[in-house]
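We close this part of the discussion by returning to an individual protein. The amino acid sequence and the backbone structure tokens for this protein are reproduced below:
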Amino acid sequence: MHIAVGPDGDFQANNKLFDNLITGDETWVHLNTPETKRDSMTWKHPSSPVTKVQRSAAKVLATVFWDAKGVTLDILPQGQCINAARYCSTLDRLKETIRRKRPGLLRRGVVLQHDNATPHSANLTQQWLQRYGWEILPHPAHSPDLAPSDFHLFGPLKCHLGGMAFEAEDDLISELRNWFDNLDVDFFRVGINSLLSR
């Protein structure tokens, strides 16, 4: 993969970056998500008491991989933490999903963009990536502005869930899958292409 800075300071990348890029990240999603402050604004007298809606303690960890064509895998482990072994098994499932949903991508070479979380940078994970020849798009530490999931995907997801409450994890997971399935392919293309302006 080649990324270069052009004479005008803009990034230029060969098509492999966008054709072969898979990005992924994790986010906690609560069964009860309050509305955003903007959505819940109402006119009140200054002396009126402020009511706060608390997030529920029940939550799932959504691990989402996606590319310019849509979500390629979403894994929603319940009550589990992500460590290097778990992340490698997630990558195994991602590889199989890519084989089914993106024919030819494994042969052309996957470019993976993920942050520097410990499970992502662990030796076990690095060995997995080397074994399958996946390239890594460098990601500076503590830079959520460079992670498309953070700046493009998870914000709209949490806005969509604002004000919703679910009785069971399965109901929340069903809503997440439905939301991802109903996104237009242009949404994903714009998110991936916006890496150039970051």
Notes: The radius of gyration is 19 Å. The chain has one domain: 13-23+54-197. DSSP finds eight helices and seven strands in the chain.
